[in-house]
Input
Amino acid sequence: MTQYIGIIEIRNLLSDRRLYISSDDTFSDCAKIRFQLDLGTYPLKSLQDDYNETGLELFIIHKVETLGAPAEKQLAIARWNSSCPQGSLYC
Output
């Protein structure tokens, strides 16, 4: 199976808060994130709390950008995170 390097967005549709993650395999990582959130084990507590309160129906977990090489991940994640306040991952 082809692996797709890219950026994943986890978005709370109710509050429009979002988290961007760089990934070497966006397909597998989207499934892994969903699994962790469903189990209540996602490491970012504020995101997990929102997910527990609002539920799956109000969250989107998807690839927002496909990259050509792993070296592009650092610049791409910085570009996506620039929309968040300084120091905030889940904004």
